[in-house]
Structure formats: C-alpha cells, structure tokens
Amino acid sequence: MDSDIMTIKEVSTYLKLKEKTTYRLTLEGKLPAFKVGASWRFRKADIDSWIKKQTEGSTGEKGKNNGV
Fold first, then answer.
1. CA–CA separation, 11 vs 5, rounded Å?
2. What is the C-alpha to C-alpha distance for residues 14 and 35, in angstroms, rounded to an integer?
C-alpha cells in the first residue's frame, strides 16, 4: 500500500473488513471513492479523513450523552 490510490482489496485490508463489506459501504456512499472504468478506487488521504470523522463523531456523541 505504498500508493496514494488503493483498490477495494487494499482498503479492506487497511480497514480490516471483508471485501464484500467494503464494496457495500462504497455503493451506499459511506466510503469516499471514485470509479476508474468499472473499478472502484480510493485515495488513502480520503480514507484517513473518513476514519478521523468517524472517530470524532462517535466521541462527540458520547460526550453529548454524558452531559444530559
């Protein structure tokens, strides 16, 4: 995974998901991706940003609930 552009298989390995789950999340628009022909591709920086947003969102929600 030296490249900035990753395949479904590489993203699945990176996120420790099954390829089928990665593909489903991509089709649902939940993972940032783009198509090259018929193949999905992912920018590593976009995936890293997505991970950061996911972790910030879950932390923020817990913080909101604790204050209520």
1. 10
2. 19
- Concatenating the DSSP letter of every residue in the chain gives --SSEE-HHHHHHHHT--HHHHHHHHHTT-S--EEETTEEEEEHHHHHHHHHHHHHHHHHHHHHHHT-
The residues, ordered by sequence, that sit 6+ positions from 17 with a Cβ below 8 Å of its Cβ are 11, 25
Determine the length of the chain: 68
5-66 CATH, one of 2.60.40, 1.10.1660, 1.20.120, 1.10.10: 1.10.1660
pLDDT tens digits, residue range 9-65?
Answer: 999 999 999 999 999 999 999 999 999 999 999 999 999 999 999 998 776 555 454
